[in-house]
Amino acid sequence: YWRRVVRMAALCHDIGHLPFSHAAEHLLPQGWDHERLTDALILGCEMKSLWDQIKVQPNDVAKLALGPKKFGPKKHRIETFSPWEAILSEIIVGDAFGVDRMDYLLRDSFHAGVAYGKFDHYRLIDTLRILPHEQTEEPTLGIESGGLHSAEALLLARYFMYTQLYFHSVRRIYDHHLTEFLKAWLPGGQFEIVTEQHLSMTDNEVNAAMSKAAYSPDSPGHRHARAICCRDHFRLVYERKPQDVLVNPHAAEAVAKRLICQFGKDDVHLYRHTEANKRFDFPVRQMDGNVSSSIDESTVLKSIPVVMAEFVFVASDRKQEALALLKKESAKIIEPPTEEKP
Question: Distance between CA 216 and CA 149 in Å, rounded?
Fold first, then answer.
């Protein structure tokens, strides 16, 4: 029974995703995200006949598909997880070894034509074990010591995929144009949460609408649709530099403010992201049977940097002027304002 539930949960894990995945998820009504849509679809009448046919409880599927972090007082509903259910959901959504992560790293690296996301997932899966957490003694996914290098490779692959692909400047500015187009095109600037409308809104509908708007100057979102369809996207003029951050931790924001003052807010976009400082602490079973923390066993895991990205973009026809301005005034712009003496 539980093998069947895990398989169904893995298949249904991301069915609540919107067109173009995470790019415009913040355009859902307040309190909604793709996990809540996933939950609603699994528990909805559309899939009831399927669950009846294969004899599984939809609530079991939903719990494993989303995991304990998505249920609680601040989430859309409250569910308690037994240790058994927590382990099974970790197989799908776990931060360190969830198959969702393994899948998207390998698949995205393949389709993007890069090697950053590759790691020995065969060795990793072969050495996975259910082990007691060093501090809580709760059962969790861990690894035999022989698979530690594969686990390190997975987490390094994640770091490089984020820095080289997911936070690539062109990919980020396309997300901005897509979001701005959807704000203008969607009724009320938001996605629908009613199941029928959610299921009928796919990448195809958005692509068709963007293509039409790109060549119709009077259409809502024309400028941003054209930016995507005609590759006339905003251009990168500044990105985070360690030496600038030493002078002013808010250097990118200072650059953006100066360019907005020069060109106006509609021609400038600032993107910033700082990932939470995650410690991938999982149990490692040694050859003698003792279990220790991965943080204690691996110098690699302790040294993986936090993913950070800061970009400033301007409209394509403003690029040369913006670069000239920054070259001339860079030191002045980045220098933090001096505090006035009392």
Answer: 54
Q: 74 φ, ψ to 5°?
A: -95, 5
Lowest average pLDDT, out of 49-58, 136-145, 208-217, goes to 136-145
- Residue 237 in 3-state DSSP? strand
Q: What is the mean pLDDT of residues 285-293?
A: 92
For the segment 220-268, what is each residue's pLDDT rounded down to a tens digit? 999 999 999 999 999 999 999 999 999 999 999 999 999 999 999 999 9
- Alpha-carbon distance 128 to 151, whole Å? 10
Question: Measuring CA to CA, how many Å separate 304 from each of 105, 233, 274?
Answer: 17, 32, 14
Query: In 135-202, which residue ranges form alpha helices assigned H by DSSP?
Result: 148-161, 169-185, 195-200
* Angstrom distance (rounded) from CA 318 to CA 315: 5
Nearest to 86 by CA among 75, 78, 94: 94
CA distance 6 to 147: 24
| Rounded-to-5 percentages of helix, strand, coil across the chain | 55, 10, 30
- Beta pairing class for 268-274 and 308-314: antiparallel
The H-or-E segment that residue 98 falls in is none
For residues 21-43, give the mean pLDDT. 92
